[in-house]
């Protein structure tokens, strides 16, 4: 029987890292020194000195998305540059935290190294994992154990709440309080709330959908998902027509979440699908702008539609001549709408 994933594992054996690691360490030390200078209170950069964890949130997200975009385009030079920009964000946050004595870059690096060792007992311990499915099982089991340990540690440090006034037998006419939920392991919903908290909404929806389905919260067949799409679309139409923006926003979210379920059933990636549509739209739109000399004002929908179809046909012809970047033809756009189809 293979050892439990809960067993202790040993870190990698010590040894000389070699010239490649030496070069990486020197380059990283240089980056740390540069950021230290940028944050120097006397000789640093005013903009860098103004930054906080909160002010850098948009930049972290932007750089992460630009890394993903570079990967999709397959440009190694661009990818290396964007990875550097993302690494800068990590170094900046570590530097900001170190200035108040909370943690530093070394703590960040040691933390992720220790986590990788713990989560790979089949590499650094004696557990067995013959395939990636077994690796995922180890990972999730260890992750749940670690979360339980954190919960116990936090519970031990939280002082007990003082008894509420008037406790004891109910006074005449008083209503009993709603009983608290029974204590026990965190339910799936609590774990998912923490997991998706920092995710983009589409990725978070896919994670929730997959985990809920794996727990048994699932349609019997995809027909049920399509029926739900129609139901949510109708509710969105009614909400938009009512003029209640808050309600319409909720219904839009419900429809998008249901479409994520369609993607899950079809083994599709909604993020990649939407990113592809964005790229195709901009490519076609650029051609329409070029054909009209950059002036779209005052054009009829029929004229715009004609140029849109021409742009789409040109892209399709080019993709046929260049198999490396396929552009599916897809259905024609509706004459009543200039918006492109999702295909």
- Strand residue content: under 5%
Unreliable residue runs: 1-6, 163-179, 325-343
Which CATH architecture of one domain?
A: Orthogonal Bundle
| Largest sheet: number of strands, sense, barrel closure | none
Mean pLDDT: 83
Break the fold down into its secondary structure elements and pairings.
Blueprint: H1 18-38, H2 46-50, H3 57-73, H4 76-99, H5 105-119, H6 121-124, H7 132-157, H8 188-196, H9 201-214, H10 222-242, H11 245-265, H12 270-291, H13 301-321
Helix pairs in contact: 1-4, 3-4, 8-9, 9-11, 10-11, 12-13
Question: How would you describe this protein?
Answer:
The longest helix is centred in the middle third of the chain and has 26 residues, at 132-157. The protein has helices spanning 18-38, 46-50, 57-73, 76-99, 105-119, 121-124, 132-157, 188-196, 201-214, 222-242, 245-265, 270-291, 301-321. Helix 3 runs antiparallel to helix 4. It is built from 13 helices and no strands. Helix content is 64%, strand content 0%. By secondary structure, it is an all-alpha fold.
What's the quick description here?
It is built from 13 helices and no strands. It is an all-alpha fold and about 350 residues long.
Q: Key features?
A:
343 residues, mainly alpha, Helix Hairpins, 13 helices, globular, disordered N terminus
């Amino acid at each position: 029987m293979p050892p439990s994933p809960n067993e202790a594992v040993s870190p990698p054996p010590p040894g000389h890292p070699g010239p490649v690691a030496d070069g990486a360490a020197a380059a990283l030390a240089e980056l740390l020194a540069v950021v230290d200078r940028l944050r120097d209170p006397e000789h640093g950069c005013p903009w860098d000195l103004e930054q906080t964890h909160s002010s850098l949130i948009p930049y972290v997200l932007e750089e992460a998305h630009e890394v993903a975009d570079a990967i999709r385009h397959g440009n190694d030079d661009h990818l290396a540059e964007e990875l550097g920009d993302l690494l800068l964000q990590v170094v900046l946050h570590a530097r900001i935290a170190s200035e108040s004595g909370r943690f530093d870059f070394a703590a960040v690096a040691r933390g992720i190294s220790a986590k990788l060792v713990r989560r790979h007992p089949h590499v650094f311990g004696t557990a067995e994992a013959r395939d990636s499915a077994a690796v995922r099982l180890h990972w999730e089991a260890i992750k749940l154990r670690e979360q339980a340990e954190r919960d116990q540690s936090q519970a031990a440090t939280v002082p007990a709440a003082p008894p509420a006034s008037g406790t004891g037998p109910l006074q005449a006419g008083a209503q009993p309080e709603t009983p608290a939920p029974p204590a026990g392991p965190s339910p799936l919903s609590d774990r998912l709330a923490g997991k998706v908290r920092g995710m983009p909404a589409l990725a978070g929806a896919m994670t929730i959908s997959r985990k809920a389905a794996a727990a048994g919260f699932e349609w019997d067949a995809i027909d049920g998902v399509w029926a739900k799409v129609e139901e949510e679309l109708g509710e969105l139409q009614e909400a938009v027509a009512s003029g209640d923006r808050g309600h319409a926003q909720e219904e839009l979210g419900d429809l998008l979440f249901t479409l994520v379920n369609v993607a899950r059933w079809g083994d599709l990636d909604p993020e990649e699908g939407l990113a592809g549509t964005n790229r195709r739209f901009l490519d076609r739109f650029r051609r329409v702008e070029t054909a009209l000399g950059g002036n779209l004002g005052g054009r009829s929908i029929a004229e715009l539609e004609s140029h849109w179809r021409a742009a789409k046909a040109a892209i399709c012809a080019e993709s046929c001549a260049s198999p490396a970047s396929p552009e599916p033809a897809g259905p024609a756009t509706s004459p009543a709408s200039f918006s492109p189809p999702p295909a």
